[in-house]
Amino acid sequence: MAQESSQVAPRYLTGDKAGLREFLDKFDVFLFDCDGLSPVLALSAFPPRGVLWSGDLLFPGTVETLELLRNNGKQVVFVTNNSTKSRADYRKKLEGLGIPSTVEEIFSSSYSSSIYISRILQLPENKRKVYVIGETGIEQELRSENVPFIGGTDPAYRRDVTPEDYKKIAAGDESLLDPEVGVVLVGLDFHMNYLKIALAYHYIKRGAVFLATNIDSTLPNSGTLFPGAGSMSAPLIMMLNKEPVALGKPSQAMMDSIEGKFKFDRSRACMVGDRANTDIRFGLEGKLGGTLGVLTGVASKEEFVSGDYRPHAYLDKLSDLLDSE
Ligand SMILES: O=C(O)[C@H](O)[C@H](O)COP(=O)(O)O
Ligand SMILES: [Mg+2]
To answer: Of 202, 225, 246, which residue sits at a domain end?
Structure first.
């Protein structure tokens, strides 16, 4: 909600050594958004987008900035809405980019959704299966919580709808509609199709809980935007006239689990991100002491300065924090 936003103009900290120092001193914990996907042409016509990296391109100064924070005793947590990866995948990615991290420091929307399903939802014994729209990250995290699932990357769902399918779905045929499905979980799916939407719709109509890993409308890639996870649940929202419970930023269910795990003082924590309506909103509605926007990602300066979700401060790029030294 816009009224949750900081109505004060955010402080521009690039090049402001004293301001940077003062800002950093206020916090013990930094929650970092990370992503930005493959900048195929990043160095030419399309600028890379992200916070720490864009695709396989690590932004200069990222490692040093994280090191600076750690050397000053700050706890670092990586919080990503990208459900296509698991925490283990993310750790590998961070390691590959030269960023030291542990799986424990990573919070992904795939993980957040899995713990919500296994530890919060009270599903009847015969309705414990999850129908997944999404990629391997979700599957890995569901497995780690021992949650049974169908769909996901199963090639059987990557096909056109046949005339028989319509009849079988209408008749509730168990070869297409598994009676044990009690949850539909929708994340970013690079193989989205009509069959997957139809099955998800019918599971929810039959009583399954409607969940989304996250509701980002778009996904940054190659310096521009592509359909995001929210665009996967959009057709279902339209069909059902019903919103899913979303488990990624800005959902406070995710903030509560992060706080539960790291036991931090919210007033001494700062969310760093590039998107106003997920990252910054997440920090504002979570009543964190600070939010820091970076201009290397989705949001423009105008959005940070006068949009609905304004960070407390913003920088041209993350590594500007190095000027605090
Ligand atoms: O559509 C999506 O899933 C998101 O755009 C994307 O994955 C965001 O990831 P984040 O910036 O939170 O790391
Ligand atoms: Mg981002």
So the answer is: 246
pLDDT for 214-232, tens place per residue? 999 998 877 788 999 999 9
Q: DSSP secondary structure string, 167-222?
A: HHHHHT-TTTS-TTEEEEEE---TT--HHHHHHHHHHHHTT-EEEES---SEEEET
pLDDT at 240 over 60: yes
CA dihedral 299, 301, 307, 310 (to 10 degrees): 90
Q: How confident is the model at residue 6 (pLDDT cuts 50, 70, 90)?
A: low
CA distance 323 to 14: 8
Ligand that comes closest to the CA of residue 275:
2
CATH number at residue 288: 3.40.50.1000
Annotated binding residue 33: yes
CA of 168 from ligand 2 middle (Å) equals 41
Residue type (1 letter), 268: R
Judged against a pLDDT cut of 80, whether residue 41 lies above it is answered with no
287 is in an annotated binding site: no
Q: Which of 38, 219, 275, 277 to mutate to test the pocket of ligand 1 (most atoms within 8 A of CB)?
A: 219
**Residue 249 annotated in ligand binding:** yes
pTM of the model: 0.89
> What is the tally of structural domains in the chain?
2
The parent domain of residue 47 ranges over: 11-81+250-324
Is there a single domain that holds both residue 138 and residue 213?
A: yes
pLDDT range class, residue 293, cuts 50, 70, 90: very high
Q: Report yes or no on 169 lying in a domain.
A: yes
Cα–Cα distance for residue pair 157/135, rounded to 1 Å? 12
**ipTM reported for the complex, 2 dp:** 0.97
> Do 189 and 280 fall within a single domain?
no
Q: Does 35 qualify as catalytic in the annotation? A: yes
Task: Specify whether 256 is catalytic.
Answer: no
